Amino acid sequence: RLGGFPHYMQKEIFEQPQVFYNTLQAVRESPDALDLLRGRDRLTIVACGSSYHAGLLYKYLLEMYCGVAVLVEQGSEFKYYPPPLSGTVIGISQSGETADTLAALKMAQSRGCKTVAVTNVVGSTITRMTDATIHLRAGPEMSVAATKSFIAQLAAGLGITDALTDGSHAEENTRINVRIEEILTIPITEAVGLCSSASSLFYIGRGLFYPAALEGALKMKEISYIHAEGYAAGELKHGPFALLSGETPVIAIAIPGAAYPVMLSNIKEIKARGAPVIAIGLAGDIELAELADIFIELPKAPESTAVATVSVLLQRLAYETADSLGRDIDKPRNLAKSVTVE
Ligand code: M6R
């Protein structure tokens, strides 16, 4: 049943190279959904939890590469405080049954919007209520923690970006599954040791790596029960700095790009306040390696590929930390796989 894996979560993490490939294919085979997204100068996204973090990734991708303004809203807020609406609203939901996301989509429809579902479950409620669907094709996700569905949502975002830019990302996208494969075996024992003895963790990143930081922190708290917070790196000095000490490791994602130099400055500021830094960067980054207490190096890749490899790495960090603490990984306390009440 688990093919030799001790938990569904680990099995699902290891399925991700294939899932990424399947989802890219699925987007190419969803012309109705793509038609509702093309030619818009503005899109709205509604989602919850990890799917909301995927929505934030879509915002960076679509704004950076397609020049489309994207508003991302949590389903639970949207229904009661809807923004001015027009055009197409995308609902992202692994299960297709999350009550808050469904209610938000209903509200958008009542305001005359077209709706597109991005979901993993064929025949789910979201697919029956929206105008078009992109099926993620990640296969059933059994673990409560979203892993392969999150990577599939990211793949769909990259596939949509490619479709809206006439294939400009196609070549790069097809290489991502191989890159993910490489991440599955990178040694992270030292980082796991540091995280499992901490009572509080911070995750920081900028641009695409900000939602990746939010998702990494969510995964860590969900299955390890260690308090973890994701921040846009520039925000840490606006309050959270007061919490930094030798007992609060900071996981800093520093991938070369527009914000790279300022990320290095942020890491120096954190070090000066005594917090140990686990830096995630690209192979051969000597400056980052020297700054960090622990340096995890990923294969060299552009940002839109690195966001996939970083996300998988952070899933592993959460999984292996939770495992070392003996947590009930596939069924964390107080949580259900799908939240069907508002
Ligand atoms: O099925 P959905 O994608 O709509 O679920 C949304 C959230 O409940 C879900 O992503 C949750 O945050 C995960 N358990 C996180 O791992």
UniProtKB/TrEMBL annotation:
State a single Gene Ontology molecular function. carbohydrate derivative binding
What reaction gets catalysed by this protein?
Answer: D-fructose 6-phosphate + L-glutamine = D-glucosamine 6-phosphate + L-glutamate
Q: Which UniProt keywords apply?
A: Aminotransferase, Cytoplasm, Glutamine amidotransferase, Repeat, Transferase
Which of the seven top EC classes does this enzyme belong to?
transferase
Q: Which stretches make up the SIS domain?
A: 33-170, 191-332
Which coarse location class describes where this protein primarily resides? cytoplasm
Keyword Nucleotide-binding carried by entry? no
This entry carries the following GO cellular component terms, namely: cytosol
Q: Which GO terms describe its biological process?
A: carbohydrate metabolic process; fructose 6-phosphate metabolic process; protein N-linked glycosylation; UDP-N-acetylglucosamine metabolic process
What Enzyme Commission number(s) apply to this enzyme? 2.6.1.16
Which compartments does it reside in?
Cytoplasm
Q: Where is the active site?
A: K337
The free-text function statement in the UniProt record for this protein reads:
Catalyzes the first step in hexosamine metabolism, converting fructose-6P into glucosamine-6P using glutamine as a nitrogen source.
Q: How does it assemble?
A: Homodimer.
Q: What is this protein called?
A: Glutamine--fructose-6-phosphate aminotransferase [isomerizing]
Which organism's genome codes for this protein? Methanocalculus chunghsingensis
Q: What lineage, starting at the top, does this entry show?
A: Archaea, Methanobacteriati, Methanobacteriota, Stenosarchaea group, Methanomicrobia
